[in-house]
Amino acid sequence: MTESIEFDPVDHITVGAIGEPGDRTFLLQATYGDEKVCLVIEKGHILALADEAQELFADAGVPDPLPHWDAEVMAIDESLEPSWRVGSVGVGFTEETDQVLVVCHELVDEGEETATAQFWMSRSQLAALTGYGMVIASQGRPACPLCRNPMNPEGHYCVSLNGKARPER
């Protein structure tokens, strides 16, 4: 089992991608004092985090003022080696401390123990993380308007059209 992580609270947290659209590796990175962690995450996890953040903001309120993030500050450190690959992500909120918890569970084979990474942060940090994450996720291949799967430059076999090829984008 990989070692579990808890940063309470994170000093900085961000997401990013390395590689070309269609062949990118998404990363989540966090800093806590002198400690840094890098995890491989899926684009779908970034989108799920954004969805869960919207639900949380609907219930607990949007941070006031909304954070302004800078792409240079949010850029990932490409020299960091990932510790492990994320299998699932969840978001929680504690009213007493007004803190958000993002929990990442390691992707492991069935029967193996799972490591977790717990990142405590403010609602403003979550808003910046998910806002920037949506920018990173949108920089990939365009989604098919029919099936929502990514479209390659050379075309796409659409499940909504029973596998018939769609024209190039």
What's the gist of this structure?
The chain is α+β, with helices and mostly antiparallel strands and 169 residues long. It has helices at residues 43-60, 71-74, 123-138; strands spanning 5-7, 12-18, 25-32, 35-41, 84-94, 99-106, 116-121, 156-157, 165-166. The chain folds into 2 domains: 5-138, Secreted effector protein pipB2 fold; 142-169, no CATH class.
What this model shows, in words?
By secondary structure, this protein is of the alpha+beta class. It folds into two domains: 5-138, Secreted effector protein pipB2 fold (2-Layer Sandwich), CATH 3.30.2450; 142-169, no CATH class. It is 22% helix and 32% strand. The chain is built from three helices and nine strands; from the N terminus they run ββββααβββαββ. It has helices at 43-60, 71-74, 123-138, and strands at 5-7, 12-18, 25-32, 35-41, 84-94, 99-106, 116-121, 156-157, 165-166. The strands form two sheets. The protein has a seven-stranded mixed sheet with strand order 1-7-6-5-4-3-2. β2 (12-18) and β3 (25-32) form a beta hairpin. α1 packs antiparallel against α3 (123-138). The longest helix has 18 residues, at 43-60. 25% of the residues are buried. The mean pLDDT is 89.
